[in-house]
């Protein structure tokens, strides 16, 4: 991945996934972690949709 990464599409199904995602966020702090439903919504609407309803809370 590069500094141009804007989103990290992920499924968090275990504490291990959370740790991996937190590590990616440390590496790419500009990238927003979102559920795969965000990507599906973008494809179905043929545009970039708001990630607000699809964000993954790592707190």
From TrEMBL:
It comes from the Eukaryota. The lineage of its organism: Eukaryota, Metazoa, Chordata, Craniata, Vertebrata. Residues 1-56 form the BRCT domain. This is CHD1L protein. InterPro entries: BRCT_dom, BRCT_dom_sf.
């Amino acid at each position: 991945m590069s500094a141009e990464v804007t989103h990290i599409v992920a499924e968090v199904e275990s504490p291990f996934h959370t740790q991996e995602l937190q590590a990616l966020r440390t590496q790419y702090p500009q990238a927003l972690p979102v559920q795969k439903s965000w990507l599906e919504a973008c494809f179905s609407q043929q545009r970039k949709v708001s990630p607000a309803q699809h964000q993954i809370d790592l707190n």
